[in-house]
Amino acid sequence: MTQQQHAANPATQRYQAIDAAHHINAFLDQKALNQEGPRVMATGKGVYLWDTDGNKYLDGMSGLWCTNIGYGRQELIAAATRQLEQLSYYNTFFHTTHPAVNELSERLFSLLPGDYSHVIYTNSGSEANEVLIRTVRRYWDVVGKPSKKIFIGRHNGYHGSTVGSASLGGMKFMHEMGDLPIANIVHIGEPYWFAHGGQLSPEEFGRKCAQELEAKILELGADKVAAFVAEPFQGAGGMIFPPQSYWPEIQRICRQYDVLLCADEVIGGFGRTGEWFAHEHFGFQPDTISIAKGLTSGYIPMGGLVLSRRMGEALVEHGGVFAHGLTYAGHPVAAAVALANLDALQREGIVERVKTDTGPYLQKCLREVFGQHPLVGEIQGSGLVAALQFCQHKPTRQRFANENDITWRCRSIGFEEGVIIRSTLGRMIMAPALVISHGEIDELISKTKLAVDRTAAEIG
Ligand code: PLP
After folding, report:
1. Ligand 1 pocket check: which of 61, 65, 159 to mutate, most ligand atoms within 8 Å of Cβ?
2. Is the dihedral of CA 132, 134, 135, 139 positive or negative?
3. What string of DSSP letters covers 53-78?
4. Which of 25, 121, 126 to mutate to test the pocket of ligand 1 (most atoms within 8 A of CB)?
5. Ligand 1 site: residues with CB under 6 angstroms?
6. How do residues 363-385 score in pLDDT, each as one tens digit?
7. Is the per-residue pLDDT at 304 higher than 80?
8. Which CDD domains would you find in this protein's record (predicted)?
9. Rounded to the nearest 5 degrees, what angle is found at the Cα of 173, between the Cα atoms of 186 and 382?
10. ipTM summary value
């Protein structure tokens, strides 16, 4: 007997019917979904969600890795209301600005480690990475190296769903739709030791993957390569934590060939690994940082592209007009919510707690519970993000041929057990809100265990 019930709630049926009639949902087969009917999420509080049938879920994915502060925080709601009353909209075009966006910028740069000077605000992570393409090319024009146009991304990297950001990403099935990638974007391998490491140790494999970047730069010509773009840990592409040897070698190569190092921190930013930014966890210093999600804890859309002082000052001093602007970028209400979110994260020491308390606790419990599990070949993660690699045969790291079906099934069972965990490329992923307590971590793990055990039993 599973915990969750599906009552024939008229509200659920109504919303499912409207959804089926009018909505194209994200990343799924709409026709298949229409037969099944989506869950209709109605309420959120802390780390919990309730659907319109009254089922309660522990949201082990903080929405889409974004509600870092948890659901329903009154300070963020109050900040939005105050700002809506004061100045509901204005922009930063044509010689204007407003207090909210400036208060946010000051706070953002007080949190950023290293020498960063400017930010271009956007409404999403995809837009941050679209802006990245134009800004990086503009930078190289301005500093007199206009031939540097090519971006190098990684297979299975994810940088968003718009034309440029999906091109930077390395998701094959996305590229197959819409003739992507666009010109001058190429990809190298992902640092996924479990799948591709063969007989190499993780550290040897990490260096080898990084050296693929060097080989690609030499093949294309360093005078043609603008930037390397990657997530510090690869999120949607399987929550892959690269071996420790990877990032220092990538940084060395980028510096040696004057290739910009662009970190997509849309998931990793704002405390996920126990550092404010994930590149701090891995010990490298990017030239640009793409941000979104945790910036506002998902309460309202906002993203941005942070630039190193070298880039920001070159663009400002020598760039003249940058012909770029988004009507809602730096929106006052989003900025006020972001500031309230950062206030709460700082005031309550939440990122520090992820580093010293809740993060280590989650990681320890996962290893205790799943370390010897027959279905789990590897456990990766740090802070409040983790992945369980499913596999058929641990000693040889053999994966299931139908691994995506298996992890998708595990995710569905998770819903039945009252926990939301994500399935991606043969791995089960969790990234709960950063406010999660020890008791809630216990619940997350015990329900995940039920889901993994039931999946294992079904496979037989
Ligand atoms: N970059 C990364 C690393 C992401 O994980 C995502 C979304 O999951 C994006 C960019 C795109 O962000 P958005 O969905 O806000 O456009």
Report:
1. 159
2. positive
3. T--EEEETTHHHHT-TT-B--HHHHH
4. 126
5. 64, 124-126, 129, 158-160, 231, 235-236, 264, 266-267, 292, 303
6. 999 999 999 999 999 999 999 99
7. yes
8. OAT_like
9. 75
10. 0.99
